[in-house]
Design brief:
The protein is α/β, with parallel strands linked by helices. It has one domain: Ribose 5-phosphate Isomerase B, Chain: A. It has a five-stranded parallel beta sheet with strand order 2-1-3-5-4, with helices on both faces. The longest helix has 14 residues. It is globular. Bound molecules: D-ribose. D-ribose binds next to helix 3.
Length: 142
């Protein structure tokens, strides 16, 4: 199960990504927002972050205008490793190296075509399980 959330700046891209997840047969839960009216990105960052940390969802996808505010907020939650990606190289690397559990995207930054490739790369890339990466991740918190 994928947790997905956005503010108004990410609403349109979120619709495209949910359509793509449906086409791939990947289950998701939309934590809002549910309309394009102006709203506050921290609300959705916290909902999605909590769903991932609590184990309700395996991964999260968060989208605001830039991806910045929503990723900053998500990363305040212990256990969240949210990576803002604008390309597939970073999406692959953050899964392999950081075991990122939330992908952040900027709805005003990347087009739907690239965003969908970034989503697929993120979801399809396993963590490396490399000892050095495990060690570094354990140093992030604690
Ligand atoms: C909303 O206008 C915008 O500030 C928000 O979507 C995001 O880009 C913040 O980081």
């Amino acid at each position: 199960m994928i947790a997905i959330g956005s503010d108004h700046g990410g609403f349109a891209l979120k619709q495209e990504i949910m359509k793509h997840l449906e086409e791939r047969g990947i289950a998701y839960k939309d934590f809002g927002c549910y309309e394009e009216a102006s709203c506050d990105y921290p609300v959705y960052a916290k909902e999605v972050g909590k769903a991932v940390v609590d184990g309700e969802c395996e991964f999260g996808i968060l989208i605001c205008g830039t991806g910045i505010g929503i990723s900053i907020t998500a990363n305040k939650i212990p256990g969240v490793r949210c990576a803002l990606c604008t390309d597939c190289f970073c999406a692959e690397a953050t899964r392999q190296h950081n075991n990122a559990n939330i992908l952040a995207l900027g709805g005003r930054v990347v087009g739907a075509g690239l965003a969908i490739k970034i989503v697929d790369t993120f979801l399809d890339t396993p963590f490396s399980n490399d000892e050095r990466h495990i060690r570094r991740i354990s140093q992030i918190e604690g």
